Amino acid sequence: xxxxxxxxxxxxxxAIALPVVTAPAATAAPQTAxxxxxxxxxxxxxxxxxKAVTIRSKASSKSTALGVLYRSHTFKVxxxxxxxxxxxxxxxxxxxxxxxxxxxxxPTVYTCLH
Length: 114
Known about the structure:
The chain is of the alpha+beta class and 114 residues long. It is 30% helix and 36% strand. It has helices at residues 2-22, 25-28, 32-40; strands spanning 42-48, 52-56, 65-70, 75-80, 86-91, 97-101, 105-110. It starts with a helix and ends with a strand.
């Protein structure tokens, strides 16, 4: 009697799992998944992630200091180096334009977990 219950339970489980295993891959995932994923990866505004960072004339720590960009200041990003190690900005409060280290100034990136 016990053996027949185990066999019956295994047969039911196999019958339920069979359609899932044999389902084509194209119909397994909904088409909206790709759209939802693209909406999650957003890049926010650049922010200063230190108390202050030096604005320099060239993309080098040895170049002339032109001013200081403080965390509370807003600024416009014009361009970055290919590696993102330096960012060319204009401090909107002081009007100083120059290069700041990408170590301290970078965008906020939002990512969704699926």
